[in-house]
Amino acid sequence: MERAAVFDVDGTLVDTNHLHVTTWWEAFRQAGHQVPMHAIHRAVGLASTDLIGHLLGEDRDTDQDAGLSAAHKALYGQYFDRLPALPDAGELLRRLARDGWKVVLATSAGGAELGALRRAIDADDAIAATASADDVAAGKPAPEPVEHALELAGVPAERAVFVGDTVWDMRAGSRAGVRCVAVLCGGLPRADLEEAGADAVYADPADLLASLKESPFA
């Protein structure tokens, strides 16, 4: 029977979380909002509108949302040609594909941003499909992104493992009924990830690759 390995991308396979923190901070600053970087860091992984709402509150002027998202997108886009893959990210995907796993990306990125991330990972030969934020009505922590990834893979939840780096990832995977693996390279504490539903925690893709025989992928 086929199995699916579903991966978040930002902070999980590509070392971009702190770039997102800096560029969101600058987008908020330009719009007159002083938002602490530590708060932005914990919100990374949410879709843009959800991130803005989480940080500015539901009583904010929502007419600013599109401008904030556009500013972040433009600022972050300056890094597209040099996004750094995390150690062994591409090799991990290729190893799982060789072992018979269908590798699917589940990410809030789309368009040129997704293309830049995939170039950084450099493992297109191992990626069977990609579920982006454009494909679902609700982003993480809703289960829809993971559920859509499973649909693309044609694999039931009980034969899938989801790998991510944020509490939003763990909550989405748990709600979708898949086993969840967390990596610490996104910068969040182990305890937070375990509380949100992580079954196992590794330092980064290289650590997971070296530990596959003892991991939920065994």
Number of strands: 6
- How many strands, what sense, and barrel or not for the largest sheet? 6 strands, parallel
Low-confidence stretches: none
Strand neighbour order, sheet with most strands: 3-2-1-4-5-6
Structural category: alpha/beta
Q: Portion of residues in helices?
A: 40-55%
The radius of gyration computed from the alpha-carbon positions, rounded to a whole number of angstroms, is: 16 Å
Average pLDDT over all residues: 96
> How many separate helices?
10
Q: How would you describe the shape? A: globular
- Strand percent estimate: 5-15%
- Separation, N- and C-terminal Cα atoms: 15 Å
How would you characterize the overall build of this protein?
GO terms for molecular function: hydrolase activity. This is HAD family hydrolase. It comes from Streptomyces plicatus. Pfam families: Hydrolase (PF00702). Keywords: Hydrolase. The protein is an alpha/beta fold. Helices cover 44% and strands 14% of the residues. The chain has ten helices and six strands, in the order βαααααβαβαβαβαβα. Strands 3-2-1-4-5-6 form a six-stranded parallel sheet, with helices on both faces. α1 crosses α2 (37-43) and α1 packs across α4 (65-77). The longest helix has 14 residues, at 17-30. It is globular, with a radius of gyration of 16 Å. The two termini are 15 Å apart.
